[in-house]
């Protein structure tokens, strides 16, 4: 099931997107765009300007995370329970369109196991200076399509 968004809704959410500061890192052909700060927000969630207007019509959430806004702006919909947005890159603050997929919660959680293994292995290699800040780590045992990866750096 999907929560659909109109062109006007997308325009409103694009204005929210202009309020964040993001950093790009990883290989130039597949970098992550990670939100570092959001003007006017204290945590990782952002007030949803569509909440009061649309909550009766489509169960609009009161707050959203930056990756949710980025996905809606690109696709004009948001997945709803039991689906969520999976980060194939393993970065929860990444908003890059190609790094976000609507998947079941079960698949999303199974990706977390791959990412945890990539992060543990990557930190060991990174500390031993086997990796530079531009490396993309992959896991040969990953069975997901598309496969999980993790961009080092940041």
Task: Summarize this structure as a short list of keywords or feature phrases.
154 residues, alpha+beta, two-stranded antiparallel sheet, 4 helices
General description of the model:
The chain is of the alpha+beta class and 154 residues long. It has one domain. Helix content is 34%, strand content 25%. The chain has four helices and ten strands. The chain has helices at 7-17, 51-58, 66-75, 105-127; strands at 2-4, 20-25, 32-38, 46-47, 63-64, 77-79, 83-87, 100-104, 136-138, 149-151. The strands form five sheets. Strands 1-6 form a two-stranded antiparallel ribbon. It has a two-stranded antiparallel sheet with strand order 2-3. Strands 4-5 form a two-stranded antiparallel ribbon. A hairpin with a 6-residue loop joins strand 2 (20-25) and strand 3. The longest helix is centred in the C-terminal third of the chain and has 23 residues, at 105-127. It is globular, with a radius of gyration of 16 Å.
Proportion in helices:
25-40%
* Structural class by sheet pairing and helices: alpha+beta
Distance between the termini: 35 Å
Largest sheet: 2 strands, antiparallel
Detail the poorly predicted runs.
none
Total number of beta strands: 10
């Amino acid at each position: 099931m999907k929560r659909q968004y109109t062109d006007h809704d997308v325009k409103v959410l694009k204005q929210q997107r202009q309020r964040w500061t993001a950093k790009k890192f990883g290989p130039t052909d597949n970098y992550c765009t990670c939100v570092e700060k959001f003007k006017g927000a204290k945590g990782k969630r952002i007030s949803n300007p569509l909440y009061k207007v649309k909550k009766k019509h489509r169960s609009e959430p009161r707050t959203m995370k930056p990756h949710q806004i980025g996905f809606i702006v690109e696709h004009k919909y948001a997945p709803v329970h039991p689906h969520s947005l999976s980060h194939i890159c393993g970065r929860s603050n990444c908003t890059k369109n190609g790094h976000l997929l609507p998947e079941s919660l079960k698949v999303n959680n199974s990706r977390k196991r791959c990412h945890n293994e990539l992060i543990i292995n990557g930190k060991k290699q990174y500390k031993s200076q086997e990796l530079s800040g531009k490396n993309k780590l992959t896991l040969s045992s990953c069975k997901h399509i598309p496969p999980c990866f993790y961009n080092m750096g940041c």
